[in-house]
Amino acid sequence: MKQGAISRRAFLKTAGAGALVLALGGGLWRAAEQGVFGAGRGPAYEPWSRWQGEPGEGPLALVRAAILAANPANAQPWLFRLSEARIDLFADPARHLPALDPEQRNLHIGLGCALENLLLAGAAHGYACRVTLLPTPTDPNHVATIDLAPAPAAASDLYRAIPDRHTHRGPYNTAQPVPGKVLQTLQVLADGDPLVSLFWLNSEAERRRVGELIVAATEAIIADAGQIADLSRWLRFSEDEVQRQCDGLTLDTAGLSPLALAAAKMLPPPSPEEFSRAWLRHTREVQVRTAAAFGIITVRDRRDRAQQLGAGRYLQRIHLWATGHGLALQVLQQLPDRAAREESLGLAPRFGAALQELVGDPAWQAVTVFRLGHPAAPALRSPRRGVEAVTPPADLEPAGEPGNHPY
Length: 407
Known about the structure:
Blueprint: H1 8-15, H2 17-24, H3 27-33, H4 46-49, H5 60-66, E1 78-83, E2 86-91, H6 105-124, E3 127-133, E4 142-150, H7 157-160, H8 180-187, E5 196-201, H9 204-222, H10 225-232, E6 235-236, H11 239-245, E7 249-250, H12 258-266, H13 272-287, E8 293-299, H14 305-324, E9 328-331, H15 334-345, H16 350-359, E10 365-373, H17 387-390
């Protein structure tokens, strides 16, 4: 059975008499329309199948891998400009979440994740890649230039994990801890970058404390009209919206059980209040409760763009390695997001101080929090914009104010 698929027979058997009522009322037609019987299909999901590209595509094949990277709210904040021997990576400011991410920390972490995928694909496709970060001081959206030269092809295990890496928002197996040697292995994936580090919190007391803070930060975000509005922009509840937008947070990726997912797709879209209650409940009862360990990626200066990009590259390596070894990972940014919001509004640093206390070392500043564990069920694919949508023509004219356009 394809990923995320649930047959009509299985749905009827699981849902019983309730499904019969739906069928008699035309509910099966709506179920099919909403993707109940075949999640992860259609144009919005084709990039996952075409991630290696076609023979002779050149640098475009590297972009196919890059667009499958982890990123905040699946906003996919990237644009690429290609030539035969060069790729330029740009931030797309239209996909920034200003209230949730006032420092553009998450945006650049997502771009760092894409850069890591691109470089892994470069090696696999026979390119030596030379990276220049932030190459145009007058254009803050010009994130990186990657110069390409011919080299022997070398596909790594991390590269091979790219099509299987998905954010897992569902329950993790609480009876299966993550061994300490695995945590140590993930810690050294920083690849010798002296400006990026990882702190683990995996004792029972530490996990309880982190979980309480994440739940409290979620409550604070829900109570903040600006932050919850930012998040709501990227919610995709209908199959039609998913296929048109090819981005955002979908019901398939919410970490629900098959029956709960089918029911959610059949029902009308939730109100903002209903969504907020469901998000808080799932965070408290599933995500923080079943985490085997929490990781905090830190840098020396959390506002430094190059260090944010380095943190994103590190996060992507961790997630790819975890995927290749049967582990699940989910970024939980409520704590750093709320800490940044406090500072931007001049509020008392409740969450900023708590986050620094968790790190326990004033020389390091937290930029990303994630949970790790063994998945209780497979994670489903997220929609992705195709390469055509993120590689505008090379002769595209800039528009708007300086620094507000991709090229």
